[in-house]
Every structure is written in C-alpha cells, then in structure tokens.
Amino acid sequence: MAPVLAAPKPALPPTGDTPGGGGAGERAFSWGVRSAAIAVAAILVGVLAFLTIRGGPSMFAGAGDLPARATSFFQLAGPLAFGSLWVAAIALAFATLPAVGVALAATVYAPSPRFGRFLGAVLDLLAAVPSVVFGLWGLMVLAPLMTPVYGWLHDHLAFLPFFSGEPSVTGRTALTAGMVVGVMILPIMAAICRESFALTPPALMEAATALGATRWEMVRTAVLPTARSGIVAGGMLALGRALGETMAVAMVLSATPFLISFNVISPENPATIAAFIASAFPESAGRQVDALIGLGLVLFAISLLASIAGRRVARKAVAR
Amino acid sequence: MSATVLAHDADRSASCGGGVADVLASSRPRWGRRLRNRLALGAVVLAVAATAVPLASVIWESVRRGMARIDAELFSSSMWAVVGPGGGLLHALVGTLLITAATALIAIPLGLGAAIFLTEYGAEGRLASLTRRAVDIMVSIPSIVAGLAAYALFSLLLGPGTRSGLAGAVALAMIMIPVVVRSSEEVLRLVPQDLREAGLALGAARHKVIRRVVLPTALPGLTSGAVLGVARIVGETAPLLLVAGFTDAMNYNLADGRMTTLPVFIYTQWSAKGLDTAAYDERAWAGALVLMAVVVALQLAARHLPAQIAKLRRNR
Questions:
Q1: What fold does the segment set B72-315 form as a domain?
Q2: Which of B23, B121, B237, B285 to mutate: most A Cβ within 10 Å?
Q3: Which residues pair with A269 in a beta bridge?
C-alpha cells in the first residue's frame, strides 16, 4: 500500500534545457510520457463525462424507467444511500479498534522489527483477499456462526432498536455484512495508523518512559495524541472503501429495496448502492441501466467526499 | 524503536534482584497503573487475533471445502454442458489470464509513462498537478463505478448490451492505473539525484539518462509495483460482471463475446446453482482456493522479486 501520509518530496531534476537534449529521440520520449500523463487525466474526465451523460438525465426519470418499480430516482437513491452509509458505519465500528491495536502491535508493542514485518505481511495478505472470497466466507462460514448470537442478542437486548424484531435465521443481516466489510477495511485503516504511529518523535516516547510512564501510559500520552489525525484519516479512507464494496455485501446481505431500518439482525435489511447495482444490472435494460449508472454517480460522489475529507485530515497530520 | 528497547530494559531491571533493582522496585508503578498497562497489552493481543483469525479462517475454509475438487478435471475442462458434479474452471483461468494481461498492457505503459512525466519532466507544472489530482480521484472510484463507465463507453461505441473481455480489461485498467502511477512515482523519487546529475553532466540527453540510468536503477521497485497492481485487479468481480458477463464455455477472443474470470466463476457457481447444490458449492470453494493461491503467489512475487532482480544484476 502506498503511503498516504508521506509528504511529497520536493520536485527533483532541473527542468528546461539540458546539455545533450533537443534531439529527435528526446522529443519523442518527452512527448510519449507527456501524452501518458494527459491520457491518465483524460480517462478520468471521460469516466465522469460518460457517467453524467448516461446517468444524469435518469435523476428526472419517472416510473417505468427505473429498476425495482421505483416511482422516482430519489425514492430509489435515498434508502440505498442510507444502506451504504449504515453498512459502512457498522464496518467502521468493528474495524477501528482492532486496526489501531494491530498498528500499535506492529510499531510500539512489536517485540522485534521482524514481528512488525510479519504483521505487515499478514495485513497485506488480508487486504489482498478478493471480495468475492470474503463474500463466500461471510455467507457460508460467518453467517451460520452468528445466527445463535443474533438469537441471544434479540432475547436479551430487544429493548435496543438495533435488536428488536424477529432475528434472521440465515444470519445474512446488516450486522454480518458490516462485519465482513469491517474485516476487509481493517488492513487499509491499520496501514495508515501504522504509518502515523511510526511518525511519533522517538524523543517524545523516550521522555514519557523516562518519566516513569508504563508502556500504555506512554502510548496514551505520546503516541495516540500525535497520531490522532492519522487515525481519523485512516478511518475516512477506509470509509470510502467500505462504501464502494460490492460483491461481499451483495452476497452476504439479504436486502429489501426502499427499506430504511436500524435493525441489524433482521431478515429484511436496507440494500447498499453498490450491491443493488450489481444485483439489478443483469435484469435491467434501456433506461433502467441509465438509472443504475445514475446511482453509480451518486455512489462515486459519496465515496469521493469521504476520501477527500480523509486526505485533507492526513495532510494536516503531516503538517503538524 | 529505541523507546521499545528502553521499555524492555526497564521491565528487565525491575524484575531481577539486586541493589539497583531494589531502588527501582520502590518506584514501580502502583497496581492500578500496572493493571491498566496489562489490560492495554491484552487489548493489543486481542486486536492481533481479530486480524489473524478471519484471515486464517478464510484460508482454512477454502482449503477444507475446496480441496476435494482440486483434481485434473478442474484444470482441464470448462463448465460447458455441466449441470451436476464434475466440470472445471479452465475457461475462467484462460479468461483471467487474457483479461489480466490486457489490463496490464493498458495500465502499465500509461501508468509508468505518467509517473516518469511526473517525476522527471512535469515537476510542478500545471499538467503535473492536474494529473496528480486525477490520480487522487481515480483511486477512490469504486470498482463497480469503473464497470459502469466502461459499460457506458462500450455501449456508446458498439451498441447497448455488448459484453467482451476487452471491455472488462478497460474497466480494470481504470482501477489499476492509479496504483501503478503512485507506486512508480514513489520508486522513481527514490533514485538518487546524483545519478541523474552525473548522467546529465556527462552530456547525455535527458531521455538517455532516464532510460539508461533512472529506469534500470528503479526497475526492482517498478516491477514490484506492477505486480501489486496486478494483484489488486486479479480478484475484481463486480466490474467484470457488468461488462464481461459470464459464460460456461471457453472463449479465447478478448474482442468478442462474454468471458468469465476466476472471481466471476466463483460468484456464478454460488448465484446460479443447479439442483446438485453441493457440487456447485464445492466448485465455488475450489475456485476460491485457486484464486487465493494466485493472489498469495503475486504477493510473494512483489515481495521477493526486487531482491532477486538486484541479485541477478550483481552477478552479471
């Protein structure tokens, strides 16, 4: 994973005329790399243009042109946006503490640099597990495992809105989906936390220890405060990833469109934008596909906001 | 890391007997603080477990449930006309190979070229900052949105409802390009400035310095970045489901017709089950096992290739 917190180093070589430059080879090469850079920027513009041209008008589409027999685009998009944010919030709730803990284990608590590297490899591998494999795992391993837990939660904590109502017997609930997505975003968040913990000035840590602080007190007073914006940045970037997660949610979550519900153990759950697009696409045609592209545009906007916010916080973390 | 060492030394000297230890013992933190310290350590250990257990479980379940179908038939046949047990994922392997290769052919030259421009030519120009911003935004494109964009492009060019491996490769390239640009840019920046200046001072043209000095120096890191980019896209499902579709048959032609890859194979084995559900589940897990093996191999390659390339070069 590319470092997010590393400050951009000063630009390198002196540009302009070079002694041997100016030949045909030089012109061809610099033209080649320049057009590659232009192409990368153009691809993004193209993506935005195609999505807007095809998906934009669907925001004003009426009944008949929308999937799932929706009567207006916002009737469809509103609950789906809620579902995406809800599942992502559950995922963050599950991932945050373990991510901070693992990052601490890989830096401050690591008994040896080798252990830190080993944990890094474990995190890289976890980040590399394809989402379809996580979907299969969540569906066939985690969901059956969680079903009795949901029964227990309903029996004992039904006064909370999250656990009221009959629990799901399949375990394919918002809570299971959130847990699976949580496992998937954990390595992303941990990587950024790890980076920001590594930026703690050693003198600060040594000073705390010299004053008689226990290791936990050293972490609490020296490491966590300096890394706070790094942790927040990691959370925002992980949120962006969680919002875009498609296959694991589509496979695990048993979703009902148009539903807004805070119940996390029910057999009926709000759908997410990404999972809805994936599951509705094969059976959509014509204008309905345009509406799905419009939904994609909404999803892009939401996750872009999350990652812009994350990057802004990260930059602040470096500046301090 | 020096603070870690310090903390260790304090632990050790506090626990061993003798004169200095007695003095230190009197200044040992009181039990409440010691307890909190222990609890924090326990929480960190739990966090490591919370990371390791799901990973171990995913690997273990893929092996346990998929191993039964790791046989010759799996790697030598497609799903054509198979409705019960048997069948294989050869068509998905071929599809993965073709689509991944096509994606890499699009993404690596573009990504590397843009990175060279950013580090060696652009520096602080307007095009450079525009490209950097574009890369920042592309990183946060959800993969399904990349699929939708590729679908919109290809349905505009070739009419609605077209499915092809090439469209899949275009969608995946949108995901891979920012990964390649970022990792390449980072590696190119690590090449010592002295090397560039030495080359330029000897009168070499700029592109010669880049091609003969900068790129060879950065090659190990560039390779590892490219491999990680491939690892990132080889497990993608959602965009391919939209634009490459799926099929039970072999398809060697990227430009024509539906093409299945390994992740899509896993998904369709689960989503479109026949009567004999156990056979489909077994195939899905066998596919997951093969895909995990591919991903692990790519990760190991990214980790060890740089050192190998450096060693080869030293021996030459």
A1: MetI-like fold (1.10.3720)
A2: B237
A3: A255
